[in-house]
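agent> step 3/5: call structure_predict on target 'Oxidoreductase, molybdopterin binding' (Micromonospora lupini str. Lupac 08).
agent> reason: downstream docking stage needs a structural representation; sequence fetched in step 2, passing through unchanged.
tool.input:
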Amino acid sequence: MGIVSPGFSGRPRSQEPALPPGQYLTEDFPVLSAGPTPRVSLDTWEFVISAENGTEYRWSWQELMALPQETPMVDIHCVTHWSKLGTTWQGVSLDTLLDGVDTGAHFALAHSYGGYTTNLPLDDLRGGRAWVAHTFDGAPLPAEHGGPARLLVPHLYFWKSAKWVRGIRLKTMDEPGFWETAGYHDYGDPWREQRYQGD
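tool.output (status=ok):
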């Protein structure tokens, strides 16, 4: 017995993909960085979650790779107006990394090798919406795109997906990161076109 009702064929797909306002579609993967590209050895790389009480949870590269891996296919949207659809990644869900972390925090500040930071509500890193990604399109993530690993938070503008991520500090109060201090929006929802403070 079939599970699809007779005559049901789904909704017709539009010829033009739905894009957030102000975005254009690209087949490329533009490289945008505020400074030099860090080159991080896998032998010294680590990811650290720091709870608000000072407790630290650490993973080496080998330990990260031993965790359950996921392969999200997601659309990504840059604040500079390009969108790339159907990108394929591999990485570890933040749900997996946060499992067992004792925290009452509501905010997170991501830290990167090279000094970059960006702030996010902790809820936006949970619920299958964020990963520490190390593979793009079936290959190790290149350094220019944030390798060996970057944060992947595709429902927000891509500056929130911090390149060269090395850890997350859990916080009870929100703290703006690098671009947010420079005037970018604290949240960065592309569908609400939250590019800059006041949007």
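agent> step 4/5: record observation. The chain has one domain: 24-29+42-192.
agent> proceeding.
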